[in-house]
Write a structure and sequence with these properties.
Length: 228
């Protein structure tokens, strides 16, 4: 058998060596570059707002205008203060508190938002489970009889077969795709949480506004009846 002949760096001939084609080297380098590009990107960071950011082009006044009357004192705004979750209790009306509580407890919109939040939280838990190994075990027993021939007659010899198996699986998150999926499900759960809070706020605001309007109309009717 004749082996291929190649020259060493000093010009001597060498047998049995096979050179690596340049196109294979180029393909290998390109494949490594492609795989490195498949890696997950940087962690998400919430963008920070500037100090000038706001909902209005001009600054709000620090206090309301004062008017004559027992409740006409100027009200001052406390920027950055915490707003109580049950803010409507600040009106000091038991009837208003009862109306808001009944509306929140019996609203189908709130119930739908709560169900959506639970669904998103469960899906986030399922996605998080992909980061851990999965183990599946099975155990079974089977009683059987096989016919046995003894001197022209058939008889059966019972026996038991036991089966046991254990399966272990793990998703190798080489490029961070699973982790990014978990982050996405967590973000969806946070979104549903904010949706629920917005539903609470919108419903409570509508009840409070309607109740105040109703009280105002009742007082106007009473004042008109007193004049008449």
């Amino acid at each position: 058998m004749n082996l291929p002949r190649f020259r060493e760096a000093d010009g001597r001939l060498r047998r049995g060596a096979t050179p690596v084609p340049l196109h294979l080297v180029a393909c290998s380098v390109g494949l490594l570059a492609l795989l490195s590009g498949c890696a997950a990107g940087p962690d998400f960071r919430t963008p920070t707002l500037s100090d000038e950011a706001g909902y209005r082009a001009e600054a709000l006044p620090a206090a309301t205008a004062a008017t004559d009357g027992p409740t006409g004192d100027a009200q001052r705004f406390l920027e950055g203060a915490e707003v109580p979750a049950q803010w409507w209790t600040g009106f000091g009306s038991e009837e208003l508190n009862r109306r808001v509580s009944e509306a929140l407890a019996n609203s189908p919109t709130v119930a739908s938002a709560q169900a959506a939040l639970r669904k998103a939280q469960e899906e986030a838990g399922v996605a998080r489970g992909q980061l851990f190994p999965s183990v599946d075990a099975a155990l079974g027993a089977n009683r059987q009889k096989n016919p046995v021939t003894t001197g022209g007659a058939f008889s059966s010899s019972p026996y038991t077969i036991y089966n046991a198996s254990v399966d272990v699986g793990y998703t190798l998150d080489l490029f961070g795709g699973v982790r990014r999926g978990v982050e996405a499900q967590r973000a969806l759960a946070d979104y549903q949480q904010f949706q629920l809070e917005g539903t609470y706020l919108s419903l409570a605001s509508n009840v409070v506004t309607t109740s105040i309007l109703e009280a105002s109309l009742r007082e106007q009717i009473r004042a008109t009846e007193d004049i008449v």
